[in-house]
């Protein structure tokens, strides 16, 4: 039979410390990324591009909050109605991104063989693929 490994109090404490340190480091990096994102949006000279970047920046920030919403709710930092409002706003921002998704993809100047994948195409273009393969 295998021996069960028992953890001492110091091992448990060390594991908890590692987890908290890792979480703090991740939070710090996310705050640096968000600060740089906000700076970039503010410095963008093109008004249309700035508006698109602001939507993406807001979506990034709210996604990071939503990722840890359970923690925020457990410590009563975010009330349930605020959590619902955040979720609803994320859905609204996703809808806005959907409307500009083509322009965002075009901004990366990707080759056609990548952007012509069936899932990247409109339904009419997708039907060409399905007809070609016999559906």
Describe this structure as you would to a colleague.
- The protein is mostly helical.
- The chain has a single domain, classed as Butyryl-CoA Dehydrogenase, subunit A, domain 3.
- 77% of the residues lie in helices and 0% in strands.
- The chain is built from six helices and no strands.
- It has helices at residues 9-43, 47-67, 69-74, 80-107, 112-115, 123-132.
- It is extended.
Topology:
Blueprint: H1 9-43, H2 47-67, H3 69-74, H4 80-107, H5 112-115, H6 123-132
Helix pairs in contact: 1-2, 2-4
Q: What letter string, H or E per element, gives the SSE order?
A: HHHHHH
Q: Please describe the biggest sheet, giving its number of strands, its sense, and whether it closes into a barrel.
A: none
Shape: extended
Q: Helix- and strand-based class?
A: mainly alpha
Strand content is under 5%
Task: Look at the structure and give the CATH class.
Answer: Mainly Alpha
CATH homologous superfamily caption: Butyryl-CoA Dehydrogenase, subunit A, domain 3
On the 0-100 scale, what is the average pLDDT?
Answer: 83
What oligomerization state is this entry in?
Answer: single chain
Radius of gyration: 22 Å
The helix tally amounts to 6
Task: Specify the CATH architecture.
Answer: Up-down Bundle
Low-pLDDT stretches are none
How many beta-strand segments? 0
For this structure, the CATH topology is Butyryl-CoA Dehydrogenase, subunit A, domain 3
N-end to C-end Cα span? 57 Å
